[in-house]
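Side project, low priority. Logging it here so it doesn't get lost.
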Amino acid sequence: MTRSRPRIDTAQRRARLGRRQLLAPAHRAARSEEVADAVVALHASDPATVHLAACARLAAPDPAAVERALYDDGSLVRLLCMRRTLFAVGAALTPVVVSSTARAIAAKERAGTLKWLTEGAPGWDERRLADVEARTLAALRAHGEATAAELAAEVPDLRETVVNSPGKPYQATVAVSSRILRTLAAEGRIRRGRPRGGWTSSSFRWRPGTAFAELPAPPAPEARAALARRWLAAYGPATVEDLTWWTGWTLTATRQALAAVGAVEVDLDDGAPGVALPDDLEPVAAPAPWAALLPGLDPTAMGWKARDWYLDPARVPQLFDRSGNIGPTVWWCGRIIGGWAQRADGEIVWRLADSGGEAAAAVAAEAARLTDWIGDVRVTPRFRTPLERELSR
C-alpha cells in the first residue's frame, strides 16, 4: 500500500506563522536579535523597515535598541544577499548567509561594476579600480567613518561620472563612487554606519568592515543546507518554489539543500506539494487571536512566492507597487486583511477588507501601540503602493 503524504492545512500554516514569526503578543521577543533570528533576516532596503519590523515583534518596542544592534554592538549585520536584496542578519548566522548567497552576489557585483566602468568611463580597467579601492579603504581607515562625498574629496577618482542609458528618456549621470562603494560593501570590506538623521534616514557614513575573504565560513553546500533548515523552521511548510524564490538560488541548489536537511514532502491545502522539516509534521496550537501592523517589505509579507493562503489575490494591486514590493499591511490571525499608512500629522490610518468586530478592535489597539512608540517620527515607505498613497493624504 502506498503511504500518503502528511497534510498540513492552511490553518496550521497560519498558526505556525503567528507563533514563529513572533506576531502573536504572547510570542513577542525581548531583543531585536531574537526577531532577526526568528524570521531568518530582516529586510533592510528601506532603513525604516528594519526598525518597524523588529518593533512590531518586540514586547517593548525600542528603535534605539535596534540601532545599537546595527551600529554599536554589531549583533545585526547588513548584507547584500538573498535575491540581491539588502538584509539585516544576526551575527551568528552571517557566515552561513555569506557562504550560501552573499559571496556569489558580491562576485556578480564586482564583475558588473568593472564592466560598467570600462565601457562607460574612459581610462578605467581592473588595475585602476583596484588602486582606487585601496586608496578609498585607506582614507576610510584614517577617518574611521566618512560619507561618500568625504571620501571623494580625498580620492578624486571617485568623483568621475558615467552616463547610464545615454539617449534614453531615463538617461542619468552617475558618480562612480556609488558603484565602487556598493561593490566594497557587497564584499564586506566596508559597512554602513549610523544614519546622519534619525532611524528612517537613508543618509549615512561608511565604516571599515571585514572582507568576506577573511571571514571563516562553511562550504557553500553546507551553508545552503543550514540556511534552508533555518528558513523551513521559520516559514515551513512551503513549496520548493518558495524557497528558490526567497534565496535566489537555482532550483538544483535548492533541491540539494532540501535533500541535505531531510525535508519531507507534504500536501498543502491549495493542492501544491510542499516541504517541511521531518520534525515539524505534528499540529501546533494556534495562538490567541492576534493583529499586527507590518511595514512595507516586512519579512513575513515577503516570505513566500505563493501568497494566496494569506493574501487574497484581489488585494494585490492595492498593496504592491509595480516592481512587486509590498507596502504596509494589516494582519489578522495569519492573513492580510488590509493596509495602513501614516499621515503628515502622525496619525496612523488603515483600511480593512475584513472589518469584523474582534478584528477591528485588535487592529485599533495595535495602531495605538504603534502610535505610542513611534512618537513624532514620520515614516514614508521607500516603495510606495496605491493604498498607502491614498491613505496617507
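Brief comment: The chain has 14 helices and 13 strands.
Revisit when time allows.
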